[in-house]
Every structure is written in structure tokens, then in C-alpha cells.
Amino acid sequence: MASTRTLADPRLPLGGLLREWRAARKLSQLDLALAADMSTRHFSCIETGKARPSREALARIAAVLDMPLRERNALLLAAGYAPEYPEHEWDTPALERMRQAVELILAHQEPYPAFVLDRQWNVLMANGAASRVNRLLMEGRESRHGNLLHQVFDPDDFRGVIANWPEVAEKFLHHLHAQMAVAPMDPAPRRLLAEIMRYPGVPALGTLHDGRAPVPVLTLVFRSRAGELRFFETITTFSMPRAVTLEELRIECAFPADDHTAAVCAELARHDAG
Questions:
Q1: pTM value?
Q2: pLDDT tens digits, residue range 223-239?
Q3: What is the DSSP letter of 185?
């Protein structure tokens, strides 16, 4: 995974960062100070630059604001401290054990697809089943993109074989907006949203609801020469990560939603093994 800059503008002072985050979380100085176990006067002095907070005080503030690790590093840098949470390349030896765990998940998902995404929706790893199903859907063609969002929204990519594309597109838009809400100052999801909105026919959020009760899980329906394939997905993340890379990693596993899809996946695996 390529290392990326922190979301914060390095020229933005600590007080500016805190005001931005308080506004995003809809917290007053009093609300935040009480939750962070400090006086309102002390917090006000921190926000106006009259007092320098300790690392411990910043940790309490970041916890109240529910800041992701990348943004906690940005807060520490703005206060003049070194970052606390490392960010490694995905293939670094420091993450070897975690990478082995991910590889085990991908292998155990066979003969059904699974893949790994970073915070910018780039596909970092995929199992053999994902490659086999992709080749079937794309008639042997390679995807134009290494980014999942572009694969889904580009009419010349996987979008062309997704039978219920408007529903799927809205689901991904919801995920992207949720990502923006978690880290409101992170430019990455906003940039991605701007890029995919340039594709034709992208639905507006909320336009597809017709009053019916929602299904428990959205099924992705693909057209293929083997007939319609139906999958639902689960997302796995690391519990209590202490590194930026791991916190931002997602493992997406696709499961067959009907017997036909399961049989096609099994047949693809047998053919590949033979």
C-alpha cells in the first residue's frame, strides 16, 4: 500500500483542527471538555493556542472525537509531537503476521471470491476465485481499473455486467458518504466521489427507495454466459488496530446467494485445478 499524507493540511494550526473536528461532531467546547476530563477554560486555551496540550490530553480529545488513527497522527503533528501510529507499506516485514492472516482468510474463502481494499478502494490482494469469476464476467478481459469504485461505476468495466447496477451504485455511494462522515476532513473520499460522479447515470442517494421494506442484505446480480450469478458480501476488519495501515484495511468476501451461483463457482475452481 502506498504511503499517503495525513489528511490535515500541515499549515493548519492545532486550534483550527480542533474547531473543524468539533463542528463535524457537533460538539461545543463545553461538551468536549467535559467528555475529555478537562476544564472548559483549559480546552479553550488549547484551541486558541494559549496552552500546549500534553500527549495524554490529545489522546483523550481524539477519543471523544472518535478520530481514526491517521487523523490522530495529524493532531499530534499539529501540536508539535511525533506521530504515534505507524503507517507501513502493506508488503513490509512488520506486517508479515497480519498479511499471513489475511492470506488465510482469502484461501479459506475459496471457491468464492474475496479481495482486500485500502482506504482509497484500491484492490491490494485477491484470491483465485475472484480472478476466475472476473474472467467469466468480463469474457476474459482485464478490468480497466485497479480501484473497486471505478470498476463498479465505469460503463466500460464491471458496471456493464451488473444487472442491478443502480441499487449497487447507491450502496457504494452510501459507503463512500459514510467514509466521509467518519473522517470529514479527509480529501481522499471526496476526490473519489468527484471522480465517480463524472460517469454517466450515477443515481442520487435515496432516489431508489419505493416504500418497500429493505431486504436484509443487498445481493449483487451479475450477467454471465453461465447465467445470472448472485452474491452477497461481508466485510472483515482488524480488531483494535494500532497501525494506520491495518485500521484502513478491509477484506471483502462474496458468498453465493443461490445454488446456481455456488455450482458455477465450484465448477470454475475444478476447471482451474484440472
A1: 0.87
A2: 999 999 999 999 999 99
A3: T
